[in-house]
Amino acid sequence: MNIKLLTIILGAGILFGSLPIGAEDRTMGFFVTSKGMGDGANLGGLKGADAHCEKLASTVGAGDRDWKAYLSTGAVGKRGVFARARIGEGPWYNAQGILIAANLTELHLYNKTITLETALDESGNRIKGRADKPNEHDIITGTQADGTAYFPDGKDHTCNNWTSNDEGSAQVGHHDRHGGGNTSWNSAHPSRGCSQSDLTKTGGAGKFYCFAAD
User: Fold this and answer.
1) 171 forms bridges with which residues in the sheet?
2) Is the pLDDT reported for residue 121 higher than 50?
3) S-S: 164 plus which of 86, 99, 126, 160, CB 3.0-4.6 Å?
């Protein structure tokens, strides 16, 4: 074997040896919407909210995933749709490739990774928190801390299943883990109402979480 050929073979070995085998896919699978839909908590139901996630993801080249809004619903005489049942099994990474949660249990039971620094929008920008003006840390979810829908209790937790921009209320979480004596990212307190102004008054902007379910 001549020296030139040996050099080529050794060079190729070094090149391919330096490439990661089975490298971890850190494609974005989680973000907070950079903007709400502008009509308070009237999102056009789950379908409209999912479409908004898809639209925003598409603006950054991630529209090919199965995007779902992290929202629960209510139902008459029974529990509605669970937010946790809509978003797949994980893992989920933010726009900067930071792991948010490996699975549903980690997301709901042990999660400490959703913070002001990691709960980014689809472009990787930070969402305003309690210390910012205006405060936009209220993220609408309609959900209990474990990601399930509320039991029927005569109260509205989902702004009439995300179709009201007036009466009702929406359960919200705090993406920055501050305020109200409750550090839950998905179930901190109810909103004052369902209009855009009501959401703003309690520290929000009608934004919500989006997860890739695939």
Assistant:
1) 190
2) yes
3) 160
Tokens 């801390």 map to which residue? 145
Question: Does the pLDDT value for residue 20 go beyond 60?
Answer: no
| pLDDT tier for residue 25 given thresholds of 50, 70 and 90 | confident
Rg (CA), the chain: 21
Closest CA to 123 of 103, 152, 94, 87: 94
Q: Which pTM does this prediction carry?
A: 0.89
**For the chain, which domains are there?**
25-212 (3.10.100.10)
* Phi and psi angles of residue 13, each rounded to the nearest 5 degrees, phi first: -65, -40
Provide DSSP, 90-146: --EE-TTS-EEESSHHHHHTS----STTT-BBTTSPBPP-TTSSS---EEE----TT
* CB-based contact 188:174 (threshold 8 Å): yes
Tell me the one-letter amino acid at 189: H
Q: Is pLDDT of 116 > 50?
A: yes
Sequence-distant (6+) residues with CB within 8 A of 134 are 128, 200, 205
